[in-house]
Amino acid sequence: MSAKADYVARQLQTRSHHCHWPGCDAQVPPAKWGCKRHWFALPPQIRAKIWNAFRPGQEVDQRPSRQYVEAAREAQSWIAAHLAKKSEGPKQGSLF
Ligand SMILES: [Zn+2]
């Protein structure tokens, strides 16, 4: 395990901070982007970008790098596109 992975794994819920997935209010430690379920719902390349840009301590001093902010923004636009695509699909109700 890398030092960074170790650091993130040790972080606790030090303040109110929720998952960044729109509409998800699961509480996650500030060092983490989101809850397990939504983190793994992101494509691996976006997860890698967020992970690589994350600097241990940024969640404390609240000064993420520009790369981190860009990666987080990319995640949000991916989610928006992903949710839009999903809602275009067949409606559950039409099965019955
Ligand atoms: Zn979530």
Structure description:
With 96 residues, the chain is mostly helical. The mean pLDDT is 93. It contains 5 helices and no strands. The chain has one domain (3-86). 9% of the residues are buried. It has helices at residues 3-10, 36-39, 44-53, 58-61, 66-88. The protein is globular. The structure holds zinc ion. Zinc ion (ZN) binds at residues 19, 21, 24, 26, 34-35, 37-38. Zinc ion binds at residues 19, 21, 24, 26, 34-35, 37-38.
- Summarize model confidence as the mean pLDDT: 93
What is the count of DSSP helices, taking H or I runs of 4+ residues? Answer: 5
Helical coverage, percent range: 40-55%
| Content of β-strand | under 5%
Shape: globular
Low-pLDDT stretches: none
How far is the first residue's CA from the last residue's CA? 49 Å
Number of DSSP E strands: 0
Number of self-contained structural domains: 1
How would you classify the helix and strand content by structural class?
mainly alpha
User: Which hetero ligands occur in this complex?
Assistant: zinc ion
Radius of gyration: 15 Å
> What is the element string, with H for helices and E for strands?
HHHHH
Largest sheet: none
